[in-house]
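Write out this protein's structure.
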Amino acid sequence: MRGIVADSQAYSRRTLGMCLERQVHFVTFVPRTCAVRQALEAWGQQQSVLPLLVEKPGRTQDAAPRCGPGQSVIRQVEVEDSDGRGTAESLRFVVVHSSQLAQQQPQTYAVARAKEAEAVTDHAKRVQAQWFACLPDAEAALAAYENQEPGRRGRRPRPWRYHAVCYRVVADVRRTRRARRGRPAKTAPPRLRRAIASWWRLQP
């Protein structure tokens, strides 16, 4: 039996599809942002008592055995095959009750979101501060920010885990220095430059 054990960062539609195609077992935590995780959490809270899933001996001879209540369920989730097509497959999920993890995960999730929010705010300020002389230059920089510039292959990387960053090109007039001294000609139009403006929002 071949298998992969990974943390929640490895959970994705492409990884699930690849493991199904190659018949490789995949064990991981489901991220909190996934819809199937939220649905299973709501389902588990409605259950009065979960059956005994695993029982381990205590750390010492006098200690009581450690019992882990939980239940194995089958749910339909969307996976991605090697051609990039999305299909629905039946996967097995294990719903367990763990008060210790339940207390740690919200705190870790809140701290991680706050740190990433600061990084996204700093990124937005640096993007808005850049000006370009023409629209093609601004669009090229926008494509580089979104990792869609020409020559890039493969899946687009995801730099932000908890936030979605959107970009747009905004035309604006900016006063620039003239090369010569003196009064400019009446027929000289103001130089028009393009700027990239960005904003960010929390993922739903």
